[in-house]
Amino acid sequence: SNLSLFQPARNAGSEPAVLDGRLTNATRRGEAKREADPGFFARLATKDATRLVWVVSDARRPTDVEYFQKLHQTILVRVEASQESRLARGWKFTNGVDDAVSECGLDNRDDWDVVLRNEGTELSAQLAEQLDALVARIQKHL
Fold first, then answer.
1. What is the pLDDT of residues 39-52, one digit of tens each?
2. Residue by residue, what is the 3-state secondary structure of the chain?
3. pTM of structure
């Protein structure tokens, strides 16, 4: 296939990791690495890339987006949910984590290629339409 999907690895249980501080420590280590070399993790994720198009759906920082846009044909996808939906799923704001650049550094960006609204626990007709539009856009680039 000529398509790759960039989604950084996550802790299996992200909420408990946030609550017991492991994510905070991992975030600090990652931020220190990014300060020294902003493209480190994106380069690591794409070092053996042979794909023509990258769908970037989980970039965390402006430097991640910049890396992909400079070096690859990229489709930027933002997945959004209201605070009400997030709370209903069990999310709780954690100071120092949820207000960090890794969580909100791209919130003011307005040049997304596709914005998906994920407000429910099931695939809604609206989300299905948005996903169909994303697939169509990807197919144009292949």
1. 888 888 888 877 66
2. CCEEEECCCCCCCHHHHHHHCHHHHHHHHHHHHHHHCCCHHHHHHHCCCCCCEEEECCCCCHHHHHHHHHHCEEEEEEEECCHHHHHHCCCCCCCCCCCCHHHHCCCCCCCCCEEEECCCCCCCHHHHHHHHHHHHHHHHHC
3. 0.67
